[in-house]
Request: fold
Amino acid sequence: MTAARLAFIHGGVHTGACWADTVGAITSLRPGVQAVAVDLPGRRSVPGDLATLTIEECVDSVSGQIAGSGPLVLVGHSLAGVILAGVVERLGADTVRHIIFVTCCVPPNGECVVDTLSLGFRQVVRRIVSRSAVIQAPPWLVRYAFANRATPEQRAEITRNIVPESAAIVTQPSLAHFPDSVRKSWILTQRDRALRPANQRSFIRNLGGVDDLASIDAGHEVMVTHPAELARAIVQLAFSAPPNSYRAPAAM
Reply:
């Protein structure tokens, strides 16, 4: 049987560079694995206009970058949650066999990312996106929401790799429908300030549950702060049979 390829999709205000340490750890654990970390449009060498970027354009770009033969496991982080369903639809469930959501934002169908955030974070993000079509995360927000649980060196790396983002991606309604045949796994970050555990469990409910749930004692930038632990979780999920499915408890 052909081994699955791994495709990593970064979140908002990031590039594919954020996955470097995790992908390196995965290739050490699983030599020969095919792993690629893509960039969304408008960053590094991938063309795109952040001022007019849409979710559909992100889907087109990602699908083109990872198209190929053989089964595929998608690994998405954070804002990638609004792109993954479109990529599955574009490439087909025969190709995309498995999705691993790493603290992803998965709004209910027809809602946008901003609507799903916790109250204080939602108010801050709404102010930011109301000012410009192209947004930049302020340094204090990066430190608070992204860089908690990070060492000084990791904090510097996180800050250095933050890039401008399209306001439309967090305000455009999205879809969360995935074929039943696609396995869904979730990696929950226990110390996440950007997407708190309660938020993540609500996103799992939006998916109708997941087949596997793993948990890491980390903040939002788990791929930078805990790359070895994340790599082990991804390898375990990507190359094992699914256990019993998990459904998040109903909101209180």
